[in-house]
Amino acid sequence: MPKDKLTAGEARRIALAAQGFAAPRPAGPVAKRQLVKLVDRLGVVQIDSVNVVSRTHYLPAFSRLGAYPRELLEEVAWGKKRPLFEYWAHEASLLPLASQPLFRWRMQDAHDGVGAWKGVMRFLRERRDFVDKVLQEIQARGPMSASELEMGQKGVGGWWGWSDAKRAVECLFWTGELTTATRRGTFERVYGLPEKVLPRAVIETPTPSREDAHRELYRQAIRAMGIATSKDLRDYFRMPVEGAKARMAELVEAGEMIPVSVKGWREQAYLDPAAKRPRRVDATALLSPFDNLIWFRERTERMFGVRYRIEIYTPAEKRTHGYYVLPFLEGDALTARVDLKSDRKAGVLIVQASHAEPWATDATPVRLAAELKLMAGWLGLDSVRVEKKGELAGALREAI
Q1: Least enclosed by CB within 10 Å: which of 98, 198, 223, 323?
Q2: SS percent in the chain: helix, strand, coil, step 5
Q3: To the nearest whole percent, how much of the chain has pLDDT over 90?
């Protein structure tokens, strides 16, 4: 039986183990089954189109498995016999196919205009004739992108400048009436009918009740995090506040979450009873800004003592650490952060700025340099260049 009081270090190592950072990376080539197993373990991988270094959905597997073949992710996400599908889970996300029924309540909320989905319901109702034409086109012609649906007005501001066709297919995606058939070219989503894209076994799976689906998503969240507060758990799949307390209480009652206290944490914590509890974690990993381990910034600060913010939308002159900054996980601590950019034409991974946390050691630049070289090779780049900005730059340039 786990003890009911944990140190901050114990909690941090439990979380790292749950996220796949306590085990060594594979010694040989990474196989498809290892990638699928990792996504099953995480439960969700966030998608983002920003391609300054690499689109974020490629990075969590690199952080945990090392230099795996990038086309493997494309195969499991958008190939013919894919084990993953896309939906809105923690923002736009890739998820195991088995989770599709668990999000039908959210699809129904989008259809009904519950909470933040009011705009979706309004568009679908006000433009029903147009939406039906879009559906008919995809039914008749097969999967299509928004740009192939040359119908309605072009985008002129509002809704991110989306055209009417883009609004229609996105709303239908959110309600579950369309799903992602594949991605093309510059990451353009191609929309298809779920019954044509997803396996029959998934389509025919009965829809669980809202309560059962929420309970299972909280089970997945605590397994993926190892230890978490109620806010951490809600954030993982962006769960509503309504019903959260009751579902968590049911999992505690069933022995599937154990209430514990963590030194320095103000809020009640919950522990996965099956969580591994390593005495030591010796990871080295560059983390995407949208990595599951750090995407909830409040939890990142509580667990690692680091206030991390992505500064893409901050004016250049007001940025503290840079445009697209990746924290460096060393051991069980975040010891540095680097502002990275892939110069694909020149074949160079550019470290535009490099900063050390107060507890970084002399080993930090050496271990970070090795990880940057590994990343450059994985991205198909020939070298790493360290610019002079940041107090870690000198030592890092020397290590490179």
Answers
A1: 98
A2: 45, 20, 40
A3: 91
Cβ atoms 86, 93 nearer than 8 A = yes
- Work out the pLDDT band at 160, boundaries 50, 70, 90: very low
Distance CA 23, CA 246 (A): 34
Q: At CB < 8 A and 24+ separation, what contacts does 250-257 make?
A: 250/215, 251/215, 251/218, 251/219, 251/222, 256/219, 256/222, 257/218, 257/222
Question: What kind and span of H or E run contains 18?
Answer: helix 8-18
**Confidence tier at 317 by pLDDT (50, 70, 90):** confident
Would you say residue 156 has pLDDT above 70? no
Report long-range pairs for 337-346 (Cβ below 8 Å, ≥24 apart). Answer: 337/308, 338/286, 338/368, 338/372, 339/389, 339/390, 340/52, 340/53, 340/286, 341/52, 341/53, 342/51, 342/52, 342/53, 342/54, 342/379, 342/381, 343/381, 344/380, 344/381
Question: Going edge to edge, which strands form the sheet with 188-192?
Answer: 144-145, 188-192, 179-184
